[in-house]
């Protein structure tokens, strides 16, 4: 189905730092199913994220060029590249599909299979794992009275949890007087705690690396919305799903309900873990680059000032 005006505008904004032909190629693929432009689009997106210290330019890459060693693409940059490719080409890339991608040749082979519908390495069947409040407290850094999970179930990339608002929580004393309502920040914190549990249980197994429970922190929230108040006696029901796992970050989406009614929604919740200092450095560099791009865009062109 051809893209509508809003989708085109969103893609143009998302790809604004890529070469113009990348955006044009995306439109040909999405509107005309032109498969021939896909390799150019993917290479263009990768080029947009290449660090300044990259040893090899995109023009000089071969099928043997290594993504981390030659191009300097670390795990966080790889996450950004994958998200951009997903948005541009309109398909989902699972974490399990990326485990054996290390060279530009691997990228080409994977994309060819993806757009042709050939099978790639998919995720294994998930097995549900249940947690009691006591078991959760042994894993996550949050502890009573600031632990807002009573139970949880992890099943692959998806997980659920609940918390009964008993009414004796300290925040009810002042939020609000004579009309107790759960602060939105607490609702989002509780959902974040469920995501933290996933990282410290399932995430460390997939990454095959230890992560101390005091090394998991909130990095960002995007697309957060609140739809309904929660009050004492309500049972918060959390539903969340992993969107991407690439050390040192995990990206989730999640919804909070009470008796089936939506209370809150987060489109992107990012937790940082392990090497948090590296994440802060990359985030600072990205912010500086965005500010520079915004400043450049704000400078009027000669034609505009004529």
Per the CATH scheme, the topology name of the largest domain is Thiol Ester Dehydrase, Chain A
Tell me how many strands there are. Answer: 7
- What's the oligomerization state? single chain
What's the level 1 CATH class of the largest domain?
A: Alpha Beta
Let me know the average pLDDT. Answer: 89
Widest sheet, order of strands: 1-2-3-5-6-7-4
CATH architecture of the largest domain: Roll
Strand content: 15-25%
So, the CATH homologous superfamily of the largest domain? Hotdog Thioesterase
Describe the protein in words.
With 306 residues, the chain is α+β, with helices and mostly antiparallel strands. It folds into 2 domains: 5-116, ACP-like (Non-ribosomal Peptide Synthetase Peptidyl Carrier Protein, Chain A); 129-282, Hotdog Thioesterase (Thiol Ester Dehydrase, Chain A, Roll), CATH 3.10.129.10. It contains 9 helices and 7 strands. A 7-stranded antiparallel beta sheet has the order 1-2-3-5-6-7-4. α2 (20-32) packs antiparallel against α3 (38-48) and α3 packs antiparallel against α4. The radius of gyration is 22 Å and the shape is globular. The mean pLDDT is 89.
């Amino acid at each position: 189905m051809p893209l509508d005006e809003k989708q085109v505008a969103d893609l143009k904004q998302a790809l604004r730092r890529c070469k113009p032909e990348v955006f044009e190629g995306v439109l040909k693929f999405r509107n005309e199913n032109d498969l021939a432009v896909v390799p150019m689009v993917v290479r263009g997106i990768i080029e947009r994220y290449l660090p300044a210290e990259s040893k090899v330019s995109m023009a000089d890459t071969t099928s043997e060029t290594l993504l981390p060693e030659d191009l300097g693409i670390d795990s966080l940059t790889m996450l950004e590249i994958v998200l951009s490719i997903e948005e541009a080409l309109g398909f989902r890339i699972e974490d399990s599909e990326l485990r054996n991608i290390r060279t530009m040749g691997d990228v080409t082979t994977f994309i060819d299979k993806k757009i042709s519908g050939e099978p790639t390495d998919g995720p294994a069947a998930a097995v549900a794992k249940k947690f009691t409040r006591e078991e959760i407290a042994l894993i996550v850094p949050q502890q009573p009275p600031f632990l807002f999970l009573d139970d949880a179930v992890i099943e692959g990339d998806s997980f659920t949890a609940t918390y009964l608002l008993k009414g004796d929580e300290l925040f009810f004393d002042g939020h609000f007087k004579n009309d107790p309502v759960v602060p939105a920040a607490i609702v989002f914190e509780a959902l974040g705690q469920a995501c933290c549990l996933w990282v410290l249980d399932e995430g460390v197994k997939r990454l095959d690396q230890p992560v101390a429970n005091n090394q998991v922190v909130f990095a960002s929230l995007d697309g957060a919305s609140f739809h309904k108040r929660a009050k004492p006696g309500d049972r918060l029901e959390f539903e969340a799903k992993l969107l991407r796992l690439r050390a040192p970050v995990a990206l989730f989406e999640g919804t909070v309900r009470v008796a089936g009614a939506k209370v809150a929604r987060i489109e992107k919740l990012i937790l940082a873990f392990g090497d948090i200092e590296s994440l802060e450095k990359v985030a600072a560099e990205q912010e500086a680059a965005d500010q520079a791009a915004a400043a450049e865009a704000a400078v009027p062109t000669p034609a505009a000032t004529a």
